[in-house]
User: Fold this.
Amino acid sequence: MRKAIIVTILVLSLFTLALPIPAVAEGESATLPILMYHSISATKRGVYFISPERLECDLATLRARGYTFVTAREVKEYLRGEGDLPEKPILLTFDDGHYDNLYYGSDLLAKYDAHAILNVIGCFTEYSSTHEKDQLEYSHLTWDEITSLAKSGIYEIGCHTYAMHAYKPRFGIKRIKGESVETHQKAVDEDLERLDRALLDKCGIKPVAFAYPFGAYDESSEEVVKRRYDMIFTCYERINTLKKGDKSKLSRLYRINRDGTKSTRAFLDKHGIV
Assistant:
């Protein structure tokens, strides 16, 4: 009797292993706008500045229009076929690691149960960590502040290079004219390693994403970035269409710059975020 039971269990186990793994529903997809913010300023106005009041209006309006703020983890799981997204997901990002993202942004994001990815620049953070903040405008986050924000769950931390957010000697991480591919890739890889190591050593975290400085890249630099990060942001201003289980989309996600000169309604309506 005991032998018969054991045989039955083995047969059932083999049958279970032979069953096909449930596949992602064919054609299942999601539309994902990704907004790119920079500085939150009470005094400055411009394409890369938004007032605290206008940011709050953005958050409230997006909520009213039925959008749900999602995280990098949720987007990654969806594109790996391991999770789902809400009916109207939206992802927020803030580039450069400005101190005002903490000063103004944290409370506003928390108020609307929103999340964002904060793409920091290592050399700016290092300077702020070793010098006194003399003004709110144009100051950047310190390593300790980045640690605190990451622990809060409001912000996830991304990489925006250590010291390549510049126009010269190269434009962002692009290859310089006449530079060999080997030399170029070594320079980019060393810069990214420097920020990755600093975030790990000083903050105990690994970046969840990478954002190209100025949205500038080429085939040579893209190859280096793809080896290090699974979520990569461009600056192509269009809405993403994500197919569940299509991991390839993670390496080239589009973002729409939040032009601070536009009202919330004008900006959202212009880009079809309705």
